[in-house]
Amino acid sequence: MATVLGTAAGTVGTSAAPPILDVRSLTTTIPTARGTLTVVDDVSFAVAQGECFGLVGESGSGKSMTLRSILGLIPPPGRVASGEVRHAGRDLVRLSQRELNRIRGREIAMIVQDAVSALNPVYRIGRQIGEPMLEHRIVKGARSARARAVALMAKVGIPAPEKRVDDFPHQFSGGMCQRVVIATALACDPGLLLADEPTTALDVTIQDQILKLLVALQRDLGLSLLLVTHDMGVVAQTCQRVAVMYAGQIVELVRTDALFRQPRHPYTAGLLNCVPRLDGPAVRLKPIPGAPPDLAAPPSGCRFHPRCPLATEACRSQRPELVEVAPGHFSRCIRHHEMPPDLWKRLDA
Amino acid sequence: MPEPLLQVTGLSKHFGGHRGLVARLGGVPAPRLVAVDDVSFSIARGEIFSLVGESGSGKTTLGRTILRLVEPTSGHIVFDGTDITTLRPAQLRKARRQIQMIFQDPVSSLNPRLTVRQMLGEVLRVHAVRPASQVQARIAELLALVGLPADSIDRTPKHFSGGQRQRIGIARALAVEPRFIVADEPVSAVDVSVQSQIMNLLLDLRERLGLTLLFIAHDLSVVRYLSDRVGVMYLGRIVEVGSRDQLFSAPRHPYTRALLSAAPRPDPNHRATIAAITGEPPSPLNPPSGCHFHTRCPLATDLCRSVAPLPELVAPGHEVRCHHHDHAAVTA
Fold first, then answer.
1. How many CB atoms lie within 10 A of CB B227?
2. How far is CA B213 from CA A275, B48, B71, B206, B225, in A?
3. Cβ of A58 and B265 within 8 Å?
């Protein structure tokens, strides 16, 4: 039976409203010459109305693939092998491309990492922001699309929008291109925004501006946000809840403050322990040994066991389930109750 | 004070701006980009000195200029008492045995068709560091030094993870037994869980081999972890330089403060103490007059718009280029 992870009473807010997005046992596979890779492996989570939910993980953890699977954007021969993506009473996995096209950009919009290449270099900015409005017929005619584009540019903080609306992408900086991409995503007033590493390509002062913009939009427009990132700092400052992914699976899912206060999966604890800090004492970091696994030959049992200081024989043989270890706090670790708070600090690097 | 291993004085690098035939016939001269603008600093023996800045700040060009992979427009680079800015190619090749580089991208900086044995063997042969009979032993020694398994020797880069590839890059730099290494963003393309492995390796190698490092990075937390001293760059200039503690605990330049405030912290309870920096870095092709930072600076006055501040010593070893560094200290 599929559980609606994290939408149980008392997790975020107290709203009894159904989640805007409910992902259940999603599994995505990609056939390759080296065998079939399960890039998203039985992933379940739900995004509440008005929530910013984070998917955090390293490269190859499946976070971007999860995002793409939601909107049916897995390039063939990769495919969603099983599971459901429930949104507004429908299962997106079962919709045709034509039906999905009515949802993409209209009800669910996406922001990608590389804003500069996401924009068409030969179209003026105003036309690119206006295109989804015309496509989804939420405005009548190019003139009103352009007027709305100018308003959106102002909303996302592009100076002098009425002048810049006729510029081309190459006349914009990387940070301004990301603002254009956000304005395009907002063009049809979607309820849910999927953001795939939206600030990774940006400089730190610009990243700060874009993250603040996303948080403000989420608050002011009542948007729900599903944010994919590799950066625990970005998670800490933007997300209400977060799922940590490792080798295609969610290994921990909880409110952000609880994740940082008391992680209940050894991988999360190790990750938090090995990132250098800007404050506090400068102590030697204790790295997680080894490297993330090759998905063509994933470890048996728990995918993290070869790198885990708590691993036992059971971890090698038995595939752990994601279980609720405290109200609203899920962990995929059979030894979560034996995890000492200083698990990684005791190790010799 | 002992003589530094590396002393950079008034170093500048300009790109473009040539007075070509068209310009002389009355056309428009090519735009000139000042990537590195009158930069001076020194690095003591055994020290890790970091240059931090955003894209376009000139930190990478500066690093490459020190190896003379990019020829400086003016200024001097003195390494261990020798001015390497004027060395001829043959002498320069010799000097490069002392100065090596680690690159950011462990994928594109390794030849995909060479095995580890061929890659490291080539370096040892070209620089004739060891007699041919000892090359194999030296390769094995290098692999152990950077923490790669001995059986990696006959594999090509595609068989390694990102972190292991970066270890190969480090082994290649160490092959000629350099005393000084320029490491340009060596951990920014590596996964988070592996980043600390590579950083600890660099710290250990410094201890074991007595290396001196110039570390180039954009990530402030990485810089804080690795560095003894730090220089902050903005549009080609070093705007603040000091010890790690001075820079991170008592920054005096408004830009350094803004950078520290903007960096995302892995702490949900953290709240920024100063206002976020507004605007974007100006184009290095057309930098603002006076202090380059005045267009984004909350403290800017007419003086900042017209006169470029000179480096001022605010504490021993702590230099700031800001007309209002005293004010900056008060509004913390």
1. 22
2. 21, 5, 21, 8, 14
3. no
Contact A44, A322 (CB under 8 A): yes
Question: How far apart are the CA of A259 and the nearest CA of chain B, in angstroms?
Answer: 10
Q: Do A278 and B161 touch (CB under 8 A)?
A: no
CA angle A107, A110, A111 (to 5 degrees): 145
B203: closest chain A residue by CA = A284
**Residue A76: is it exposed, middle or buried by C-beta count within 10 angstroms (0-12/13-18/19+)?**
exposed
Q: Are B196 and A270 a contacting pair at CB < 8 A?
A: no
Q: Which domains does chain B have, with CATH numbers?
A: 6-17+31-98+178-331 (3.40.50.300)
Name the residue of chain B whose CA is nearest to A285's CA. B196
Q: Exposure pattern of A301-311 as b/e (b: 16+ CB <10 Å)?
A: bbbbbbbbbbb
Which one of B52, B265, B270, B283 makes the best mutation probe of the A interface by having the most chain A beta carbons within 10 Å? B265
ipTM above 0.90, yes or no: no
For position A8, what pLDDT does the model report? 41
Phi-psi region of B71 (alpha: psi -120 to 50; beta: other; left: phi over 0): beta
3-state secondary structure of B49: strand
- Classify A331 as helix, strand or coil: strand
pLDDT digits (tens, 9 = 90+) for A241-279: 999 999 999 999 999 999 999 999 999 999 999 999 998
Contacts of B162 in chain A (CB under 8 A): 59, 291
pTM: 0.90
C-alpha to C-alpha distance for A251 and A224, rounded to whole angstroms: 23
Tokens representing A87 are 């949104």
Give pLDDT tens digits for B241-290.
Answer: 999 999 999 999 999 999 999 999 999 888 777 777 888 888 888 899 99
